[in-house]
Amino acid sequence: MHDAVVIGAGHNGLVAANVLADAGWSVLVVEAEDEPGGAVRSGELIEPGFVNDRHSAFYPLAAASPVFRALGVHIPFKHGPLVLAHPSVDGTTAVLSRDLADTTMGASWREVMEMWARVEPALLRALVTPFPQVRAALMLTLEPGALKLLRLRHEGLADRLLVGNALHSDVPPRTVLGRGFGLLLTALGQRYGFPCVEGGAGRITEVLVERARARGVELRVGERVERIPTARHAVLAAIDVWELARITGRSVRVERDPATVKLDWTLDGPIPWTSEPARRAPVVHLGSERDFVLFGQYSMADPTRSPAGKETAWAYSHVLSAEEIENQVERHAPGFRALVRGRRLEELPPGRVNLGTARWRNELVLRPFHGRPATGIPNVWLASASAHPGGAVHGAAGWIAAHAALRATRSYRPLPQALAR
Ligand SMILES: Cc1cc2nc3c(=O)[nH]c(=O)nc-3n(C[C@H](O)[C@H](O)[C@H](O)COP(=O)(O)OP(=O)(O)OC[C@H]3O[C@@H](n4cnc5c(N)ncnc54)[C@H](O)[C@@H]3O)c2cc1C
């Protein structure tokens, strides 16, 4: 019998397996699909020679994540000349760049980023701590810049950048939470960029699998868990909360984020954006709340993804159909359709990006199991993006659940220095 069984080999499950193995536990990871990774996978999905990311693709939170730092894994992040561009049909383009001088957030942005640098350690700490985040809350309360950041009002291109970044989540962008989310992604983009991963998103999964295997973790794929397995100390459910409810026969009421239309392309050349900055930014935002498209293009950041002179691209929308997404791109880049060699469409049901919703009614204490990893079933811990802090690739849910399991069996070791700061 293993000390722990992890259900699901998404990145959170793999982070959890690594943390438990570091503590000397024997760990089995069981994955339903034929390969690990969940929403962090890539491959030649359309044609040979072109690598597309299956779901997630750009990683500000992974680049900032204290979890990956503490695990000491090296992820080969790749950046383009700019971080992101948000063109409009009026001919203007909002730009986020790691170079402050190129970011179109207005004159006060430098000062805002200085405030942000003081607040960021508390926010990252809150990311890797379950409810109640006492120390993080205290740090934020003692930092006068924290409230000021949320009260700031932005207009024009700055407002466009913040709204676009808020729309990475399903939170209405002009609410307090939406503004906070927009600011979080904009500030992280300023400091860490929105990098993609050299050779494909699946490299993150490979790095985590290699690290786990080197510590004796056993990984079984192609095996769907149908009931809670037995383990000496703990079972970590790195699966969405509805799947956990299914296999435990319990009921759960958690709101889902909206359905997602996801498109990947292989192209005969770079996208002919009318906006010049959009030709230099791997991430491009198109439209507003009503018709928003999140678009990614790789060759300028990672030329290994496609043959020389060709391109691979990625997009998703919660509001437009596949045809409307292509129309939206064509409007900003006349000639785009003529470059398309191949496309892949995936229609994801509600709940797939965040394994829940990022809205207030599912945050902090309102998350499943009151924002804590204990599920109410003895020694079963929720370790997926359904738990705090939710969707995106940062590994925090797996980290929190694994430490809770270790603490519960008294073999808990204190946070490594990287997190204790
Ligand atoms: C289209 C899309 C685009 C995204 N873009 C980004 C992005 O650019 N940047 C970013 O940071 N985040 C992005 N996200 C969000 C991010 O990818 C996810 O929030 C995150 O990967 C979830 O990780 P997880 O390990 O918690 O769950 P998952 O990745 O969903 O992994 C869960 C795993 O459990 C397995 N499983 C389920 N049930 C069982 C069972 N009964 N038995 C065994 N195994 C089981 C599944 O097969 C899966 O492998 C995106 C998500 C989607 C869907």
Strand order of the largest sheet: 7-6-12-13-14-11-15
Strand proportion: 15-25%
Number of domains: 3
> Could you spell the SSE succession in H and E letters?
EHEEEHHEEEHHHHHEHEEHEEEEHHEEHH
Please state the second-level CATH architecture of the largest domain.
3-Layer(bba) Sandwich
Euclidean distance between termini CA atoms: 37 Å
Shape: globular
Question: CATH class of the largest domain, anyone?
Answer: Alpha Beta
Output the radius of gyration. 21 Å
- The CATH superfamily of the largest domain turns out to be FAD/NAD(P)-binding domain
Low-pLDDT segments: none
CATH topology of the largest domain: FAD/NAD(P)-binding domain
Distinct bound molecules: flavin-adenine dinucleotide
User: Count of DSSP helices?
Assistant: 14
Query: Helicity level, as a percent range?
Result: 25-40%
